[in-house]
Amino acid sequence: MARINLNRICARLGLTAAVILLLIWSLGPIxxxxxxSLTAPNEMMTGTPHLWPPHVTLEHYxxxxxxxSQSQGNEVQSVWPQFxxxxxxxxxxxxxxxxxxxxxxxxxxxxxVRLRFPGRDTIFMLVVATMAVPAYTVMIPLYRxxxxxxxxxxxxxxxxxxxxxxxxxxxxxxxxxxxxxxISLEEAAWLDGAGRTYTLVRIVLPLAAPGLIASAIxxxxxxxxxxxxxxxxxxxxxxxxxxxxxxxxxxxxxVDYGLMNAAGVIAIVPPVxxxxxxxxxxxxxxxxxxxx
Length: 292
Description:
The chain has a two-stranded antiparallel sheet. It folds into two domains: 75 residues, no CATH class; 211 residues, MetI-like fold (Orthogonal Bundle), CATH 1.10.3720. 71% of the residues lie in helices and 2% in strands. Helix 1 crosses helix 13, helix 4 runs parallel beside helix 7 and helix 5 packs across helix 7. The relative contact order is 0.13. The chain is mainly α.
């Protein structure tokens, strides 16, 4: 009995230590970014790091939202015009990609599950297999294609690239959701004279709402955190998102760590809010295909 209790205690201690390490690994960088964003520029140059700033300042956030200041002897003008434009670009491209991807996945996955046509499973496997293709292998031909159709540095071009990248995952997820739904409800609607489109929109999609929301969350988070694609295809502030703008705060004369971290803290607020409010739907959507 004593040995069993000792084993249970050791298991709980091991689990607790693993959870603590995971939290430090996951939240540590975010916490350090917050601390840096609240630290005065002159205090960043000290050799002793602090777990919390000795004197909390909102100077870096002020620079983001319209104020100018001094950093390492240099006057730093407000970056609000660039920051606001990049924030709007991130919202527009991420939201557009999410809406288009979810709509296409909702109808496309239904076709792969309920309709019968030659090569259905083969086509689906080929589409899903594109997730294994590294983005770098298609970057150059995709860039040449986007130039030829004049979609470089446009919302439409960025949205199309995001959709092509995230649609396979959304299709796979929605296919699992549809397969878990009983077909008897659709058959009853068909007997009453309802068409496939009406049945899908009025009966199937409401039941598949957790899967739709999960697909939307995953697509939005993936689009919001993209760096390589907008770095190549968004050369100007017309479509440049936050992920590309923030590293540009590094100048030839100095690196404004406080400004970069303040912008990073603000950039993670929309995804955090989205996941916090829709987390239950994300879990239900991901688990939808676990059983019938």
